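quick one, two chains, predict together pls
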Amino acid sequence: AQKVTQAQTEISVVEKEDVTLDCVYETRDTTYYLFWYKQPPSGELVFLIRRNSFDEQNEISGRYSWNFQKSTSSFNFTITASQVVDSAVYFCALTSNTGGFKTIFGAGTRLFVKA
Amino acid sequence: DAGVTQSPTHLIKTRGQQVTLRCSPKSGHDTVSWYQQALGQGPQFIFQYYEEEERQRGNFPDRFSGHQFPNYSSELNVNALLLGDSALYLCASSWGTGDNQPQHFGDGTRLSIL
């Protein structure tokens, strides 16, 4: 079965703090894709990053970085020097061929960044 | 370059009625997926359309049906509405088979059932 777990329901930080959002996934496939999306209050999900199962290189994009570890089935997301505009719900998602490549989303982590 | 557009933005219906939601994909995209997002939860996959056919379907009853038109736009139909159908309905588009492609989402239609 495919599953994505985001154990942190809500996180509250003060501006300029670093924050890490956790994501743990389950799949028996060897080929799969992991995604992070951001959902601001407007409702539209915004794509942040895609990672395939064969690429374990960490990635940095500005203040965002992602740590993919197959050994622990985790794909964690870190925001460095958080800003108020980072306040949103963040979703981790998984697609794999066993699931017919249906996208499975985690329950999301709501991030509050206070000024 | 227009993104994914959905209509209407909000909708109020009563139990037993039926509803049709509409989606226009991002320019250049040919695959459309629909999701149901209940309050405080992640999006749940309903189904995906490609080349005017339903490619994949999630765990939703037959009351949920859809259609894709030659111009790639899509409709989601829900019959015999239940209170539990109250949710934000999201449309997402992508290019090609969409299997590993990032999806572009619309702002959603918020459906309330009274």
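The first strand of chain A starts at residue 3 and ends at 5.
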